[in-house]
């Protein structure tokens, strides 16, 4: 693969996050200088795994404080000491439960944050390449969206046109942020943009943080939350390490273009439970059966699932076309059984289950 041979640090925004931490680790292992932003350097609990990486790779990892909602907040990280050529913009809130004000909690940090980072990119001529972490959520919102695609096979040509502030606000936040990034990129020709659109990311975390959506989902698959049965929900799954490698391939190869569905396989929640049960037996409270749809309507609201969500998602399968990601990024996908089992083992080691 043709590499962008940068001697300058590569910036990863939101370094304390689940996926970003793996990107940073792999970049350091590959010998790159890395710069990362975190919201607060005082919150050592969120970044202790990064501090330990900076001990291992002395002088190779720099930290800057930045907040998506503060204008100009990324200027120093992007432009300091000769600046960066490559920016991987990954920081964005990812949660789907307990949302009180979707505009403030999700849309503003995703959309204004992306604008904020790209305004800084525009201000510093050193930047040549931006990789944006978008999501499959900006390609499709509900499973029923796949019904518009032949054989319900969704590819990168689709956009999520069904999510809104009130229905599926997280997918909506990712959609408006990605659309805006493409608009901003089109207005200039100094830096190129490519997006990574992962499906649901699972696999071992480098930190023992318990506050991420991916981590919480895996905990819920073994801690008895679904002991009465899982809803018949289908989801694309991909290993966090494959997602990290996809970002690095996109960052370093200027020929990589466009959007990329990064997803290993679509599977149901019961399918996930079966893989875990086969490996772990009765060690954990792993769900054994499906929750009938009428019960999903009854108990759904207690799990944060609206009736509209249940209608448009439960019992509806779909496929994600990952061909372009394999060709353009040169990645191959780990089997999801490995992803799931290693994730549970890591959570057990971190005493999170
Ligand atoms: P995490 O919650 O682990 O990471 C989110 C990161 O965003 C954290 O570093 C967090 O900072 C940062 N962040 C949130 N709000 C702000 C803010 N106001 N200012 C600055 N930073 C902020 O999630 P993931 O690693 O899972 O997600 C990373 C990216 O990947 C996101 O863009 C997400 O939308 C995308 N994605 C994730 C998928 C998944 O399944 N995990 C699937 C598809 C896309 P802090 O560390 O301070 O909390």
From TrEMBL:
Q: Can you give the residue ranges of the NAD-dependent epimerase/dehydratase domain?
A: 10-261
- Is the Oxidoreductase keyword given for this protein? yes
The lineage's top-level taxon is Bacteria
UniProt keywords, alphabetically = Oxidoreductase
In the UniProt record, does the keyword Oxidoreductase occur?
A: yes
Any one GO molecular function term: oxidoreductase activity, acting on the CH-OH group of donors, NAD or NADP as acceptor
- Name the InterPro entries on file: Epimerase_deHydtase, NAD(P)-bd_dom_sf, NAD(P)_dehydrat-like
Entries under Pfam families matching the protein: Epimerase
Q: Which PANTHER family match?
A: CINNAMOYL-COA REDUCTASE CAD2, NAD DEPENDENT EPIMERASE/DEHYDRATASE
Protein name listed in UniProt: NAD-dependent epimerase/dehydratase family protein
